[in-house]
């Protein structure tokens, strides 16, 4: 078994597309700006994040509400230099809600939300830096 992706169901597809592509800098697989589906990949690693139109999935399953309530997901992305990456993404329009700050003695993190309110955690693994 292999994890193919984490998929987020979204109501404002275009805003989420811009967030993951333009602000976080992940590479879109197909360029489907208008949806209903797109997968994004970081420069390294094989894991990916996908977004899918919530209404489309509701039609398939017949059970999803129009809007998710509360924090239902957290996407974690590892970066080499948390401070530098946070400076880059805030310059592109991101708003950090926490950090950069230590989470443990082995990791520093920062948090932000995508346009749908999904939490994104940026992680800097200190052991990989020799810190």
TrEMBL record:
Q: Which UniProt keywords apply?
A: Metal-binding
Leader sequence range is: none
Q: Which domain of life is it from?
A: Bacteria
Q: Which CDD domains match?
A: VOC_like (cd07264)
> For the VOC domain, which residue ranges apply?
2-125
Q: Does the keyword Metal-binding apply?
A: yes
Looking up PROSITE patterns in the UniProt record yields: VOC
Supply the PANTHER family for this chain: METHYLMALONYL-COA EPIMERASE, RING-CLEAVING DIOXYGENASE-RELATED
This protein's record includes keyword Metal-binding: yes
**Which Pfam family name is an example for this entry?**
Glyoxalase
The protein, known as: VOC family protein
